[in-house]
């Protein structure tokens, strides 16, 4: 069993194709259907193999990895806690299909814009908090303040953009939700992970020795997540409005106007199902930072304790 290392992903994370395969399994929407009993069983199997290095009875390599990916989809990599089901990346495709469908379908009135942006940012806040990096706790007060700031920023962006496109072509109005989501991501993610920005995220040597907490690593990780999340939204929130606009101009929905809703939901569903893992794979989950880029006090720690170390590693979050 020496070739199986459950502390690392199954596929080579130095290549995009390897990361894509990894995240396709990790974000599989079917993972959220697993019961607590199945998740606990997967955790037991993974921990047992790590401890004994022996293949559990009735298991082969493929079945063991299947349990490992189910485990990874539900348990936080730093804290080991079972994550809230709607905050798991496996819930991204079904939840974003419904929410994005709502945002690009009901965008014409202010109440509808407020409602769907609030729903979207509440969901994003849950996802961002659930998939934060590090193991430091965040107070309820700080969490509530971050949530209010994230939602307020997103709603303000959406309402401002809506006011600017009232007299423009319908396509521009259809794209307002995407622009609002882009702006909101750069508010929501840092706010919901503000504890990392204030206190730093844990950084480690290549062999897993904890060096300390770095705010610079936190800023890098959060920046990378912001980029991948915006790109994740691009297909569903830009292609869908463009295709729907073309279909509407050609009279596809004249006879059955409500058919536009399942039409858009189908397009969004296809887009987010594949965009989620493919955009998560843009950057390595285990990000690296040169020692020279760390805070001076951490550089000193590394020089004293690990003189040969040139890079440190950290979980950038998702």
UniProtKB/TrEMBL annotation:
InterPro entries: Mtc. One of its GO terms (biological process) is serine import into mitochondrion. Keywords: Amino-acid transport, Membrane, Mitochondrion, Transmembrane, Transmembrane helix, Transport. The keyword Membrane applies. GO terms for cellular component: mitochondrial inner membrane. The chain crosses the membrane at residues 143-161, 220-243, 263-283. GO terms for molecular function: monoatomic ion transmembrane transporter activity. It is a multi-pass membrane protein. It is found in: Mitochondrion membrane. Belongs to the sideroflexin family. This is Sidoreflexin. It comes from Parnassius mnemosyne (clouded apollo).
């Amino acid at each position: 069993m020496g070739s199986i290392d459950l502390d690392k992903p199954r596929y080579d994370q130095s290549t995009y194709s390897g990361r894509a395969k990894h995240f396709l399994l990790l974000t599989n929407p079917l993972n959220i259907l697993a019961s607590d009993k199945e998740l606990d069983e997967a955790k037991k199997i993974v921990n047992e193999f790590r401890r004994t290095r022996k293949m559990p009875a009735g298991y082969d390599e493929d079945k063991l990895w299947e349990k490992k990916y189910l485990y990874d989809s539900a348990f936080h990599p730093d804290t080991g806690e079972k994550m809230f089901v709607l905050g798991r990346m496996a819930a991204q495709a079904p939840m974003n299909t419904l929410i994005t469908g709502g945002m690009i379908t009901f965008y014409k009135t202010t109440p509808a814009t407020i409602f769907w942006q609030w729903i979207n940012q509440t969901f994003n806040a849950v996802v961002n908090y659930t998939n934060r990096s590090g193991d430091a706790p965040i107070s309820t007060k700080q969490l509530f303040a971050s949530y209010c700031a994230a939602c307020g920023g997103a709603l303000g962006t959406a309402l401002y953009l809506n006011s600017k496109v009232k007299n423009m072509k319908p396509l521009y109005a259809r794209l307002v939700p995407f622009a609002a989501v882009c702006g909101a991501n750069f508010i929501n993610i840092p706010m919901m992970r503000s504890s990392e920005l204030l206190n730093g995220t844990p950084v480690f040597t290549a062999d897993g020795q904890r060096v300390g907490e770095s705010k610079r690593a936190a800023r890098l990780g959060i920046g990378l997540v912001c980029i991948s999340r915006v790109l994740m939204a691009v297909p569903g929130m830009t292609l869908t409005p463009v295709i729907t606009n073309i279909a509407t101009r050609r009279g596809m929905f004249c006879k059955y106007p409500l058919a536009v809703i399942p039409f858009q939901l189908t397009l969004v569903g296809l887009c987010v199902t594949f965009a989620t893992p493919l955009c998560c794979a843009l950057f390595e989950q285990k990000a690296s930072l040169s020692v020279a880029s760390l805070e001076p006090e951490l550089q000193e720690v590394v020089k004293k304790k690990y003189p040969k170390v040139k890079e440190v590693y950290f979980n950038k979050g998702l």
